[in-house]
Amino acid sequence: MKSYLKIFKNISNKTSKIYNLTNESFCQILFCRISYFITPLFIILKFNPNFLTLTNFLISIFMGIFIIVGTEQYFNLGIIFYLLYRILDFSDGTVARYFSISTFYGRFIDGLADIFLNAFLLLSLSIYSFQLFENMSLLILGFLASIFTIFDSLIYDKYAALVRWHNKENKKKVLPYIKRSFLPKLPKVYNDIYSLLIISLLFLNQEQNLFLIAIILIFIFFIISAVQTFFIHVYFASINLSYNAKVKNSAKAQKKPKS
């Protein structure tokens, strides 16, 4: 018990400096704080952080399956799995930092798991909603939202990768993420809105009209977030990446034509 409390205090003090309302949404902070109660157990049992990440990937798959099954009980279980993922999503990184074994591979698979989570969630919600309301437009909207959320993540990663490449070639110090603007902060607001809407689905199964409105809003906010991400990153890329890029010399790889 003393060991648990000691670890709890340690990770709560350190993690609160990384995740706070300055750089994260309210719901993200809430899930992070809840993870403090679970993570010490993983540390005591010496779980590998990458194992936790892969476990989260499996949780996202089961989440999608339970939602698609179409019964109220399994649907609620699927939403609970979604919330469990959001909580455990902080545990793998906290464990890695506690044991000082953070790796870029871990960050890579963690990012992939997050993409799968949102894509599976939106796809499964669109299928469940179609089964419930038999509305093809709703099904299409959900599929579009799942595609948009994948591109949302890819845009962030592509911009960050090119900025780091640009900094290396041109000896610049451009931040690999967009910070000083009001609009880039809006995704935190979107995150809170759709997180609360997803939680509300647990209580709206008997209220079909409200349930339908919540589902539509979830899809719309994911799409809005992705569209905003696209335009903001195109704008800042035009400002921050307007430098010459070195052209790879492929002449050596080609045979000179015979005279």
Top keywords for this entry?
mainly alpha, 259 residues, 0% strand, 9 helices, 75% helix
Summarize the entry for a quick read:
With 259 residues, the chain is an all-alpha fold.
Distance between the termini: 83 Å
Judging from the principal axes of the Cα atoms, what is the shape? globular
- Give the integer mean of the pLDDT values: 87
User: What is the count of DSSP helices, taking H or I runs of 4+ residues?
Assistant: 9
Largest sheet: none
Derived structural class:
mainly alpha
Structure summary, number of beta strands: 0
Query: Strand percentage, roughly?
Result: under 5%
Q: pLDDT under 50 segments (min length 5)?
A: none
Order of helices and strands: HHHHHHHHH
Helix content: over 70%
Rg, Cα atoms, Å: 22 Å
How is the topology of this model organized?
Layout: H1 2-18, H2 26-44, H3 49-69, H4 72-88, H5 91-98, H6 104-133, H7 136-170, H8 186-200, H9 208-240
Structure report:
The chain has 259 residues and is an all-alpha fold. The chain has 9 helices and no strands. It has helices spanning 2-18, 26-44, 49-69, 72-88, 91-98, 104-133, 136-170, 186-200, 208-240. It is globular and about 55 Å long. The mean pLDDT is 87.
